[in-house]
From TrEMBL:
Start and end residues of each EAL domain: 23-273
Transmembrane domains' residue ranges: none
The protein's name: Diguanylate cyclase GGDEF domain protein
Included stretch of the parent chain: 420 to 694 of 700
Top-level division of the source organism's lineage: Bacteria
Length: 275
């Protein structure tokens, strides 16, 4: 809403200060969230459209605040990024997820989200190596998800880091594909193992010809690069049927399984008949 009078402006300023206060308090609380064991990881299955089997699971960070309850990563990841906390939190996620995934059947992969802020120097590859060594997780089971925003700054340096990561034998996925307002030029600088089509395109796919055209184009693009394509946020049978018909390799979404605690996921993964 537009501020029309002095009172409105004062209210606006008050709201902004409230927000800044809230952010500052959350930042302070996030600083101790790790040591107070308030952070945990849920895992969401990613399923093969052909076999219907779980191929890998994506690690999604959760913050259980003692009084505020569950806080969404959409809210606290940006705070972690702007405060520099993302480095230690990101490290914790990587090490914890690798350790938990090492307990799964060996044909199930693990996907971990990386913030652009974790691309600082060459410490990242060393850290990934350490996480793999300490957990005894085979490198080919690990997939790191990045967004195209890492190509907006230090593009050449980041491509070098990506290549270094790939040399470890892990895979690199491009997350939220098509939502980042950048050109497609970066696709010729690095060869991704996987493209993940953002939920915003999947959502309208069955009703909007434009969305369907975009989904089709992304699948074609992925195939021509030899990359696997995953559809995010599949919620309905109609979306699943449509995306399968279009030749998408993998699907993820509430229809196939919500993010879940590791104990629950493990029960599903080790069930005698896995579908
Ligand atoms: P993302 O990487 O795009 O993860 C997918 C998000 O979509 C997750 O939200 C997941 O719960 C949600 N989702 C999955 N299927 C469906 C569906 O069918 N419908 C709907 N409406 N949503 C679905 P979540 O867990 O809230 O995470 C939000 C974002 O926070 C992630 O988006 C990612 O950008 C960030 N994030 C989460 N964990 C981490 C982490 O460990 N590190 C970093 N850097 N970012 C993280
Ligand atoms: Ca992701
Ligand atoms: Ca995504
Ligand atoms: Ca997303």
């Amino acid at each position: 809403a537009k501020a029309t009078g002095k009172g409105d402006y004062a209210w606006f300023q008050f709201a902004m200060e409230e927000k800044a206060d809230h952010q500052r308090i959350l930042r302070e609380e996030l600083t101790v969230a790790l040591e107070k064991h308030q952070l945990s990881i849920d895992y969401q299955p990613i399923v093969c459209t052909r076999s219907g089997r779980i191929i890998c699971c994506e690690a999604l960070l959760r913050w259980r605040h003692p009084t505020r309850g569950l806080i969404s990563p959409v809210e606290f990841i940006p705070i972690a990024e702007s405060s520099g906390l993302i480095e230690s939190i990101g490290q914790w996620v990587l090490h914890t997820a690798c350790r938990e995934a090492a307990d799964w059947p060996s044909d199930i992969g693990l996907a971990v989200n990386l913030s652009p802020r974790q691309f600082t120097g060459f410490g990242l590859a060393a850290d990934v190596t350490r996480a793999l060594d300490q957990s005894h997780l085979a490198p080919n089971r690990l997939e790191l998800e990045i967004t195209e925003s890492i190509f907006l700054t230090d593009s050449q340096e980041n491509v070098r880091i990506l290549n270094q990561l790939k040399q470890l034998g892990i895979r690199i996925a491009l997350d939220d594909f098509g939502t980042g307002y950048s050109s497609l030029a970066y696709l010729s600088c690095f060869s991704f193992d996987k493209l993940k089509i953002d939920r915003s395109f999947i959502k309208g796919m069955t009703t909007s010809p434009e969305n369907l055209a975009i989904v089709r184009a992304v699948i074609g693009l992925g195939k021509s690069f030899g990359a696997t394509v995953t559809a995010e946020g599949v919620e309905t049978e109609a979306e699943l049927a449509c995306i399968t018909r279009e030749g998408c390799d993998q699907v993820q979404g509430y229809l196939l399984g919500k993010p879940m605690a590791p104990e629950i996921l493990r029960e599903i993964l080790i069930a005698p008949v896995r579908t």
